[in-house]
Specification:
Blueprint: H1 9-18, E1 21-26, E2 31-36, H2 41-45, E3 53-58, E4 60-62, E5 68-75, E6 78-84, E7 91-94, H3 96-105, E8 108-116, E9 119-128, E10 131-133, E11 136-137, E12 141-148, E13 153-156, H4 158-161, E14 165-169, E15 174-178
Parallel strand pairs: 6-13, 7-12
Antiparallel strand pairs: 1-2, 1-14, 3-15, 4-5, 5-6, 5-10, 7-13, 8-9, 9-12, 10-11, 14-15
């Protein structure tokens, strides 16, 4: 659909609908559950079992519509901005300086590839280690598209989200990561 219209179309439509719900995404089952935010907090909390919670990420909404959650993470002890995008597979944009620093620290492993998700498109693939939020270690990220740019940014899409069940609450500006 996006190829025939405009890039980002589906995500924009999604945010307009889901911003009024606690929505839980499970990539394994390919199910998104919606819970009205008009329910009391205790009822909503029933959908987030405390024993399953890995961490609650506090985000700042970004872009013109405020539909792209941005979170400060660290790689080792190096800060990086992470932006969530369910329509992205996972992209890491680094300055040449930070790429070298992460390579030398052993936090980044790169490999030249010829096919990007079934399409012939040479790219640099990255594996990122030691990602964390505060003191909470998170999964290593594989199969990231690595790009060199003027700013450092990690786009957290499928390669990150597939490792957790995630509960998104735009009113509280939180994304809760739950164990699989």
């Amino acid at each position: 659909m996006e190829q025939g219209l405009v890039e980002g179309f589906l995500g924009t439509v999604g945010h307009g609908f889901n911003r009024n719900y606690l929505f839980v995404i499970d990539y394994d089952t390919q199910i998104i559950d919606f819970y009205s935010l008009n329910q009391d907090d205790e009822t909503l909390a029933d959908n987030l079992p405390p024993e399953q919670v890995v961490v609650i990420l506090k985000f700042e909404p970004t872009d013109a519509e405020g539909n792209m959650p941005a979170v400060e993470f660290t790689i080792g002890n190096i800060p990086i901005l992470g932006v969530f995008d369910t329509g992205d597979h996972g992209t890491l944009t680094l300055t040449e300086t930070l790429k070298t620093q992460l390579d030398q620290a052993g936090y980044l492993v790169t490999d030249d590839q010829d096919f990007l998700y079934g399409t012939y498109e040479p790219y640099l693939q990255g594996t990122l280690k030691k990602l964390q939020y505060g003191d909470q270690p998170l999964v290593d990220l594989h199969n990231l598209r690595l790009e060199i740019g003027d700013e450092n940014q990690l786009v957290l899409g499928y390669q990150f989200l597939k490792n957790y069940v995630t509960a998104w609450n735009y009113q509280d500006q939180t994304i809760t990561l739950l164990k699989r």
